[in-house]
Amino acid sequence: MTGPRILTPAEQQRLDALQLCLDDAEPVLICRPCGYALKPFGERVGRHLAEKHDVPKPKRRGLNGLIKSIGLADPNDVPLRPDGLPPHEALLTVRGYACRHCNYRTVSLDLVGRHVSSVHGFKQNRKAHGWQRDHVLEGVSLQSWSQNGSRGYWIALPPTPTSPSHWVDSLPSHEASTGQRALLAAAHDAERARLASRLPAAATDEGRVDPALQTNWMRRTGWAGTFEGARRDILATMTQLPASRNSSAPLSTGLHLGLDGEGDPLISPPEDEARLRCIVSAVDGLLDRCEDTIRHTDVSIRCWLRSSEPQRPYKAPFELVSRPSTTYRYRRYIKKLLCFCFRLWRLPLGPRLSQCRRTLTVTQSRAFQALWSDSVWTAVPLHNTSPDNRSSPESPVCVESTSTDGDGRRTIQTRSATRPRATRVTMPHTPSLADKAQRASSPESTSESEIDTEDDEEDMSDMESEEGRPRSDDLEEPWDSVHLPTPLFFHSPCLYGFIGQETADTTSVMAIEDLVLRLLFFLVTEEFEYGQSNTTLLVFFSGIIGFTPDGTGFQRPMNYTAALSALIYCARLVVMEALLPRTSHDYVGYPARPRHSQLAKLNAVRREKMCLGSQAPLGELLSLRDYGRALARADGPRFRWNWSDDGQALHWDDGHLSLCQFRSISHNMLEQTTSAVDKLMYGWEPVFTPARLRDRMANTSPGYSFISEPANGLHEAYLGLSQRASLAGLDGLLSTDGWIRPRVRRYLDDCESLLSKLLLLIYLTGGQAARVTELTSIEYQNGASTQRGVHVHSGALVIVTRHHKIRKSTNKEFHVARYLPDTVGKLLYIYLVYIRPFSSMLRRVCFQAAEDESSLLFASHSSSNSPWPTTKLSRELSRATTNLLALAINTRTYRQVSIAITERVIKHISSPFNMYDDKSANAPIQSAFAWQSGHRPLQRASTYGLDGAYPDSLQPALLEKYRWVSREWHRFLQLEPSV
């Protein structure tokens, strides 16, 4: 096809007068007012001018002939222009939508929705497919030759955008209905009223060669002799917690402990596991009461409780652990202890001796029998046993063979036969620890406790083995003659007949908790036999938790002392609850704390059972922990690495990471977070000028932050995002009928996903990696008694952490400032100023959330008062590194790697500095200012006035050093340094 002929100047002038444009590249005639090409056939051009633009006939005379002589083509036959060219100056440019998967373009939201649904299979009501924006480009500039784009559109490259404004300069392309606007206006009015009521206050109130197997360590623990010949795999399995009813493990098969010497399986029956589940469940309730007792105990008593010396208290009081994850981990040790003890006791004598190399004394057996056979179990349903096969409390662990032990006193049961093991009878009473404590607190009292914790030395004196040591299992009398202690408090025979079932269940649970307390008190105060600590079950159990995961070796002291701390912590809770409970334990006869002489009652037991050198488990655990900590310091670090010859790659146990890969972790997370922010902001990019932001760092008034600072004017900036997101034509959150709850819910989920990305990004780019608990405890605004951790200083956002690992021990806080790169600071700024308050508004408006929210930055919206667990950041980092590098790196490994890189590549960052140094060769010359005033720098800083614009512990000199360190880290990561 030949192109159109060249027009004469007179012809071009006539077309221009009629506002007709002849395209130089394509043979089409475009009507400028209409913005589309006209068909050049017949009289269509003239008729169009007459009907659409009222052009008089004299001006149209001869026009059709002229058009015909030019040789124009039908616009429907002219190919579409390529995407990305500048807009055609004569064609109409419209805002529309483009499919991400094909070349479909349209200006209709309904049509593009139908297209992606029918052609690409995207269903809007399927949450798994995500947002429509994942499949559709919104707001693209479209042009077409034909009217209404009937022959298709192309994407015109838009002109260079102007700098974005702080507020929304125009509504979304989709025209919002009156109903939408009314609903949104009402929501905004409510938000403004809420902000107005709060603003004044916020503005005016301010393994084989293992270092663990060192001779000294193994000599001190005695584990080689304690577990000689024992099946460590079976011992470790015996400490497992029973499967819950909600777990996938079958409950009808019991717990497989392992195979005995003849290859027969050792199984803890399902009936025993059901009872263990009840006992383990009671531990939580009991320890809750223990913690309540500690909370209502004075500091002086808690200092004595923490002391390991007989005659003086510790300098700091015993404190409850602050992290729920630590509480959970500590309680697991006590639950494992109980499970191990009962399974060991229920194990037949033959396997116990041959596989576990462990015996039990009469006193120990009586203690377990007292709980296992108590009458309270008659009122407790064991859910996973049927009425016809529910065993009696005397049913032992099963092996799949029938035999008897050496002395013929106990039957090793087969699966088809059972034999009762004991009958519950009373035991003669002898004075106990509780009696001693009671007499210490009440000297005039002559009544004796009926709780039996006596040792059986008199009964055992003639039952020694060839080595002169008693075999404790030989000391066990035949089971039908074992006498057991009865509880002090006897329930009425009609207790469960005259009260409701719910009350009966509660009473049974409390009775089991009391029985568990009595047993635990016995275990933590059990006296050594023949002066050997491993004769007590608690010390024996502490050795089992010292096994390596595969059971082939023992843990290093560095890894093991934390478990000892957990046992010591829980033991102190138990002792305190048994001696000085806030409320009485009537079922076992432990009275509530007396009004006077509480310290005498505590020390009567503490000096004998809880101090270094005492002949009880706690004395051994305290000594072993101290020795382990001292040895761990000489044991060397657990993490060891090697550098490649060129110094560009780091190797450790099973990992390899180059410096380029290390940098890519931060860059990739920055890209992901930026994309997530853009989606939640609906494409809006507000201005970020941190140099103009005002922040009074020393302001500790509740609710204050740079967002609420009046000079910044940011307190209601999020309403701009609210307008854009609510009235957007694509994925808008508001319709004429109200809020679209599924979209709102998805938006809130995306906000929480963004927050987890921000946490990881700050962790990666804020300098030397922080402890996770330090980051997750950051507050974005001041609390009632806490200070915020997000500041603006020197044109950058700063994260300040105030929590140190040993803060409770030293009573000192360690302040660390981490300056963020501009790119990261901008994302955090947008989240705090726009996304977070808007998501809070959505929860209030759509889901009636509480008005007051926690000031914690990293917390779920469903539980805003609880910081995220440390595992959340570790999982996020592991997921990110796995997807990027096919190498899972958790937070512990990342901290080690980042420190290794710092010491090798950025040596000057890791060099120590002393801001009060005035003697060394590297001392700053500014020290002379302090000399002139007759002071040393430290005295001058601690005695004389400080800059009131900064916190006392973060003065400008220290902040400047932290800023320099952060910038060096940003430079290494090849991120834009803070200004």
UniProtKB/TrEMBL annotation:
Comp. bias (Polar residues): 384-417
Biased composition (Acidic residues): 447-465
Region span, Disordered: 384-478
InterPro entries assigned: OrsD
Domain of life: Eukaryota
Protein name (Swiss-Prot/TrEMBL): Uncharacterized protein
Organism: Colletotrichum musicola
